[in-house]
Automatic annotation (TrEMBL):
Regions crossing the membrane: none
Domain N-acetyltransferase, residue spans: 26-228
InterPro entries associated with the record: Acyl_CoA_acyltransferase (IPR016181), GNAT_dom (IPR000182), Plant_NAT (IPR052810)
Protein name: N-acetyltransferase domain-containing protein
């Protein structure tokens, strides 16, 4: 997710002059894992994530700046370096993956992840140069479109990408944050939650993903990653479900009446890979506003001490690949919620589990409504990079798509 702080505005002519001066003093180059890691850690610690009036949840990558993008065969990390002092004042990550669409089109899309700029070098053109550089890398590697996500409240980020970089809104989603400890772990005796092996999970997703507006083509790679805990199917015992471990015909994967209800889901474990610190604004004058906002949006959900939560990292589980079929999905979704909470309870410092659903996903209406759940609005943006891209595909991308697959590697 892209998160860019807002800042006070200098007069336009002054800003342009500062941008020109800064541009000549900065080199955009590829990240050097041997010599840059300490400086990138420092940069990201000092970078205030989110707007000054908002408490943001962001990813602490446990000392490995490349951890989020190592999952992708095609990835890059670029840094902005001051020519004189060699200080790093900005960083951006990019990956490329193949995705499918509801219409059957196949796209090569570049994803922008983790844009950070040092507080003293914001609004001086550093972010623009980093974005342009990562887009150039995407084009060189065959990407037809660029893509990114940011929180709805982050006006600075939205303005940067839409006004200055010509991105258009692709989709609106909701991130659901649920504390592990807030749910009872009881699951109805009428419901069975059955774990399926990877081969069967791949076959199931190969069929269900075709209902999504956008989805990755390498679902088998995702499911085989070590952070993927497993895949389960939840269904009513009275209806039954015939899951086969060896399947020749995909259409026979679930061989019972279509009116029966079932939900498939997978769990991604980030507790050892990276953490979620909650940080407050560096500006003292915004402290009260920030804490009040946190109290309203986050801490009632987490049921954690205010003083401790602002400085303590905690791990999380990510629910992904959620798909449901049938008429009675509400109780099945609730059982999935409780089951995930039970899994997280057995994992040391795992405090919350998270999922994200598009506004057009049918299951968004079946998310359990509990007092402890917290919702964060998310926006996806895209931009056409290739002049050779299919114009028919453009028609898909410039309209709002609502039922998308949220890749756990992107979160």
């Amino acid at each position: 997710m892209i998160s860019i702080p807002s800042s006070s505005l200098a007069p336009f002519s002054q800003r342009e002059e500062m941008v020109d001066r800064t541009r000549s003093k900065i080199l955009i180059r590829e990240y050097n894992e041997d010599k840059d890691v300490k400086m990138v850690r420092k940069l990201e610690r000092n970078s205030e994530i989110g707007t000054k009036k908002v408490v943001s949840i962001f990813t602490n990558m446990m000392g490995d700046p490349l951890s989020r993008i190592r999952f992708f065969p095609l990835h890059v990390m670029l840094v902005a370096e001051l020519l004189e002092s060699k200080e790093l004042v900005g960083v951006i990550r990019g990956v490329i993956k193949n995705v499918g669409t509801l219409s059957g089109s196949l796209l090569k899309m570049g994803y922008i992840l983790g844009l950070r700029v040092s507080p003293t070098y914001r609004r001086k053109g550093v972010a623009l140069r980093l974005i342009a550089a990562v887009e150039e890398w995407m084009v060189r590697n065959g990407a037809e479109y660029a893509f990114l996500a940011t929180e709805k409240d982050n006006d600075a980020s939205k303005n940067l990408f839409t006004i200055k970089c010509n991105y258009v809104n692709l989709s609106s989603l909701v991130i659901f944050v649920q504390p592990i400890s807030s749910l009872t772990k009881h699951i109805s005796r009428d419901i069975k939650i059955e774990k399926v092996d990877i081969d069967l999970a791949i076959s199931l997703y190969r069929r269900t993903l075709r209902t999504k507006d956008l989805y990755p083509l390498d679902m088998d790679v995702i499911l085989k990653e070590k952070l993927s805990v497993g895949t389960w199917v939840s269904y009513y015992k009275r209806e039954g479900l015939n899951l086969r471990s060896k399947v020749n015909n995909e259409e026979d994967l679930i061989s019972n009446e279509t009116s029966n209800s079932w939900v498939i889901f997978s769990i991604w474990n980030t507790c050892e890979a990276y953490k979620l610190p909650v940080r407050r604004s560096q500006q003292v004058r915004f402290l009260l506003t920030t804490l009040n906002h946190a109290r309203e949006r986050l801490f009632p959900c987490l049921k954690m001490s205010m003083s401790n939560s602002l400085c303590r990292s905690f791990g999380f589980l990510f629910l992904y690949g959620i798909y449901g079929q049938g008429e009675n999905l509400g109780e099945l979704m609730e059982s999935m919620w409780r089951f995930t909470s039970r899994v997280g309870e057995g994992m040391g410092n795992c405090k919350v589990f998270i999922t994200e659903l598009g506004f057009g996903d049918p299951l968004a209406n079946h998310v359990p409504q509990t007092d402890s759940i917290s919702c964060i609005d998310d926006l996806w943006y895209t931009k056409r990079l290739s002049s050779h891209a299919d114009e028919n595909i453009d028609e898909i991308l410039v309209r709002q798509v609502g039922n998308v697959f949220v890749d756990p590697r992107d979160f």
